[in-house]
Each structure stands twice: as C-alpha cells, then as structure tokens.
Design a protein that fits this description.
- The structure is a single chain.
- By secondary structure, this protein is α+β, with helices and mostly antiparallel strands.
- The chain has 2 domains: 75 residues, Pseudouridine synthase I, catalytic domain, N-terminal subdomain (Alpha-Beta Plaits, 2-Layer Sandwich), CATH 3.30.70.580; 96 residues, Alpha-Beta Plaits (2-Layer Sandwich), CATH 3.30.70.
- The protein contains 3 helices and 11 strands.
- Strands 1, 2, 3, 4, 7, 8, 9, 10 and 11 form a 9-stranded mixed β-sheet that branches.
- The radius of gyration is 17 Å and the shape is globular.
Length: 191
C-alpha cells in the first residue's frame, strides 16, 4: 500500500484549482503545479475559482477528498470583501438562504453563518481592488457546509452586495493562519 501525501496551500488570485486545463482558447491560466512539485495523482479537495484565493487542500487520497467534499458536514469559512455597506437585512437573508442560479436551475442555498467582521490581516492581492474612495468595502465572514460553483459570489450578488475579494480561511479544523500567498505545506493528514 502506498503512502498518501496531503498538502495545504494558499492559492493565489489568478490560479485555477487544478493541474491540467482543457481550455484551449481564452488565454493561459496558471495552474497549481507551478507552485510546487506535487506527487503524481495529487488532486484539489474542492475548488476555488480563478478570482478567489486562500486555503486549498490537496491530497493523493481520493477517500479523503470524497469525505471533505461530498458529506456536506465540513465547514468552510470565507472572508468576503463587499461592494457597498451591507445591511443587517441582507446578512439575515444570507444566513437563511438565498436563491442563486446553479446548473441552469434556481437553487436555494442552505442556512449558513454570516457576520460582519473587521478588515482581516491578509496579504495584499496581486490584482488591485478598488478602494474605499469609491464607496464602502466592508468584510463579512461566511461559513457554510456546501460549495456550489461560485456560490458565495452568487449569494452576495443576490442580496445586492457584489464580492470584491474572496479568501477561504478555514476548511473544517484546518486554518489558513499566517500562510503567505503561494505557500505550500505538506501535512500528515487532512481529517
């Protein structure tokens, strides 16, 4: 039986959460393999879209990946910078579930935890974000157990406060902590 490898990384803005791309046209995307020499059969556990950044788990063990992504019990926490001063009503809507589009159908998100937070101490993003001179850009924490395609971005847009920056800071008990953008750490286990 071969020993599996597990990694936690700080996925930079502009990277795809994968190692190969099927996309031929539309420009070259940066892939995870550019960050580190990962062993063969390493896979991302869940994804972060190209514009999102933060904690991404990688493993060579499909059972670990399946446990984290499909059981629907592992919490994922995101720090989200918004365009506009979010209202308590909008926060309550996000907590209770909002309607988003998913796979061409309407979908109501599951209830989740949402709260206003102070500006987090995060590394500066490689691509500049508009600043507060153009209006308020508060941060919220969103913790959920599901993860549909671009879900958090769709949720904040659904309540009228589009996402400017999205950083995943926690998956289960694993924290982004003080990792730097692009940093890769091999760990003993993920769950």
């Amino acid at each position: 039986m071969s020993e599996h490898h597990h990694f936690i990384i700080y996925k930079p803005y502009g990277f795809l959460s994968q190692f190969i791309t099927n996309q031929i046209k539309g420009g070259k995307h940066k892939l995870l393999g550019e960050l580190y020499d990962f062993p063969e059969k390493t896979m991302a556990v869940g994804r972060l879209d190209v514009k999102s950044e933060g904690l991404l788990l990688l493993t060579t063990d499909g059972k670990v990946s399946d446990h984290i992504t499909t059981r629907g019990k592992v919490e994922k926490e995101y720090y989200v910078q918004l365009d506009g001063a979010i209202t308590s009503e909008a926060i309550e809507q996000l907590q209770n579930g909002v309607e988003i589009g998913f796979d061409g159908k309407k979908y109501i998100t599951k209830p989740c935890k949402v709260k206003l937070i102070d500006t987090p101490d995060l590394p500066e993003r490689s691509k500049k974000i508009r600043d507060a001179r153009h209006g308020p850009t508060p941060w919220i924490s969103v913790t959920l157990t599901e993860g549909k395609f671009r879900q958090v971005r769709k949720m904040t847009s659904a309540v009228g406060f589009p996402t400017l920056r999205l950083v995943r800071v926690r998956v289960g008990d694993i924290l982004l902590g003080n990792m730097q953008v692009g940093e890769v750490r091999e760990v003993e286990e993920l769950i």
